[in-house]
Amino acid sequence: MELTDRKKKILRAIVDNYIKTAEPVGSKALSAMPGMDCSSATIRNEMADLTQMGYLEQPHTSAGRIPSPAGYRLYVDELMQDYRLSVDETQSLGQVMELKIQEADRVISQVSKLVSQMTNLPAVAMTASAGAPTVKQFEILSAGAGSFILVVMTNGEMVKNKLIKLPVSCTDQDLKLLSAVLNASLTDLPAAGFTPELLNRVSRSAGPAASLVPVIVDFTTHVLKEQQRSPVYVSGQTKLLGQPEYRDVEKAQEVLATLDSDTLSNLPATLESNAKTQILVGPENIAKELKDTSVVMTRFDIGDGMQGLIGVVGPTRMDYAQITARLSYFAENLGRMFGKPELPPSQDNDTGDD
């Protein structure tokens, strides 16, 4: 069955209407909309086809239809019209840019609060490596007889150290050799690159200090994973309760519990690395508790191999065009604040009909 232009037009009208009203949309209401130049009977037949194709669903015994996850996905990929921010919105959103704050974490925390206020939905903000974290440098410092301090510096400027006991047979010269081998073999590699074959070569090259290699690799892997799991700032969780989809207390509790868990810290790993703004609709999300929820995330560059991510969590019925425009505005200006070229382009679009 072909997805004709008329079917797409009807689907877009249904999604737009459902976003505004949270009520199933019927053929009679659609036929009365401006620009809908076909009869109620024709629209009803097209809606039946869209339902059969998996883009619409019929809730309970209602005569109307609502978008399915596949319908939302087609909407955000092909049908959604760009949203132009009003002057008032731009001024309100710009308030956070007046905060002359340099620390990334403090900026991220403030942004999550303002995004939640401006969208009336829970907001999520975090930092993440622009790609997999790697080790920038190893240092080995003497700590007196019988021990040394291992210092691991990452590409995200994280510095961690660990006190390690020395084998009796190790000399200062052996530790210098170990440091040279580590920096030659394990820097600029993600943890996934620490293969058994590579570690065997490192151990063979480390001489008398070979027994220290597994301890060092375990600690280094932990450090790289810690950099990847940056703090997640969530604001406005209770705003979810104002949405009709979450009147079911049990359903709302599932989503709220997920927002308060460590699940969201895994979000960067699920996003496309080259995507500026990404929308996860319903079942595409990282947790089954979010199967009826959508997540919209936008990236911006912080520098030093790090990126910031800001987004919102809400019902699949959210206003994707408006939210995407607002998040892009934040990302563009935060990119400037941190002195790096922004990822998302400036919004200069119209909301008029095609």
Textual characterization of the structure:
With 354 residues, the chain is of the alpha+beta class. The protein folds into three domains: 75 residues, Winged helix-like DNA-binding domain superfamily/Winged helix DNA-binding domain (Arc Repressor Mutant, subunit A), CATH 1.10.10; 138 residues, Beta-Lactamase (2-Layer Sandwich), CATH 3.30.450; 94 residues. Helix content is 40%, strand content 18%. It contains twelve helices and ten strands. The strands form three sheets. Strands 7-3-10-9-8 form a five-stranded antiparallel sheet. Strands 4-5-6 form a three-stranded antiparallel sheet, with helices on one face. A hairpin with a 4-residue loop joins strand 4 and strand 5. It is elongated and about 90 Å long. The C terminus is likely disordered. It comes from Candidatus Avoscillospira stercorigallinarum.
**Shape verdict:** elongated
**Uncertain residue segments:** 340-354
Radius of gyration: 26 Å
Mean pLDDT: 83
Question: How many strand elements?
Answer: 10
CATH structural architecture of the largest domain: 2-Layer Sandwich
Which fold name is given in CATH as the topology of the largest domain? Answer: Beta-Lactamase
Strand order of the largest sheet: 7-3-10-9-8
Task: Report the biggest beta sheet as strand number plus sense, adding barrel if it closes.
Answer: 5 strands, antiparallel
Structural class: alpha+beta
CATH superfamily of the largest domain: GAF domain
Total discrete domains: 3
GO molecular function, one term: DNA binding
Protein name: Heat-inducible transcription repressor HrcA
Organism: Candidatus Avoscillospira stercorigallinarum
Keywords: Repressor, Stress response, Transcription, Transcription regulation
